[in-house]
Please model this.
Amino acid sequence: MEKIERNAPCWCGSGKKYKHCHMALEEKIRHYELEGHMVPDRSMLKTPEQIEGIRESSKINVAVLDYVAEHIRAGMSTEEIDRMVEEKTRQMGGIPAPLGYEGFPKSVCTSINDQVCHGIPSEDVILKEGDIINIDVSTIYKGYYSDSSRMFCIGEVSEEKRRLVQVTKECVEKGLEQVKPWNFLGDMADAVNTHARANGYRVVIDIGGHGVGLEFHEEPFVSYVAPKGTEMLMVPGMVFTIEPMVNMGTEEIFIDDEDGWTVYTEDGKPSAQWEITVLVTEDGHEVLTW
Model:
């Protein structure tokens, strides 16, 4: 990190002198770095103003998912879900972040049964009794990004699928317990992976979470299979997603050759995912989206 004089204004824009703001925190970060740990740079630490912007974006993100929850049903197409998400997001002053992102053609990802993530809404895909579906909503509001997803069980779902959905949510909750300053992302990952494996499931290795807030996807990459004490140090001001993809069978996956987006389980067994955006605070964490 660039050295700042003690009495200079802090880089975060708080108006305080550096010595009364971020200096002690950055000295502690430097201590961990000298011990060989991976640490965040200033670009990963959100200022109070930025955090407030991400909170406002998150309110829209959650409201859109709540709206989907009120209307989702068997017999509707995933294209209808896409229209709901776009209309509700824009009605509240936001922009759907997925639309046009690296060529993605829709406003939301809809991933059903053995689709792990990035499912593309279509008039031809109709929800039916017994499906499980992940609805992944990402929102831009006044330049700030938020991101979350939920699982929905359509009608009467098999006990196997229902259990997968529940355990995956528990994995997020177990991981969240480890989100506190001076822990490591690996502590969170180990809690997620341990709970999934204890229940006979496997966590996808090749796709993880990410920093979020000023961009759709920021550093760091967030693994859910890393060991305790590894990966990046968690520091107040970091904002990232917890979004493990938990498979009933193998962790192996593949991407659809035709659309170039939809990720499937290699063995055709179901997958589930819940996603939240979380802020590391001075004494723990704040969940921004669920």
